[in-house]
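Journal club side-thread
Mid-discussion, someone asked how the predicted structure for our own chain would compare to the paper's figures. Pasting it here so we can look after the session.
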Amino acid sequence: MKEKIEENGGRLFLTRDPLEIMPGVLTTGEVERITDFEEVGIPLKTLNEEGRVVEDVMKDDISLVANVKGKGIVIVSGCSHDGIGNITKKAIKLTGEEKILAIIGGLHLIDASFDRIRKTVEALKGFDIDMISAGHCTGFEAQVELYKAFGERFIPLHTRMKFEF
């Protein structure tokens, strides 16, 4: 609850726009869904302002982008409901940096069709990516396809991992 966050010294920023947390580190804000194959991935519901249950299109699924000076960007996603291709395009647009040091997080392909997994992997191959570390809601089949496409540049994400750039 907002009150509890503030009571404990936290500050809550609700915004649809990207938010710079510190120089070189920002959130994506809402991500435009450009691709025709990426989707939320699961049917979700939420309450609207009138208290009615409606479809949740996950417009608040933001990612974190860190611009590592002189090296490239690191994208940290939660579940990638906007699609990792769309998120990557947004990160490049926000930073002006096309070199991607890493994509880390969930890619929400666990229940995706093989066609969608294949299209996602092909889209990622179109970017200059040094490393992808995906887990959580990515799914085993998608991890296999990522490994086949990226080889040693793909690392399954797991607890206690440490990344240095």
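Post-session note: The mean pLDDT is 93.
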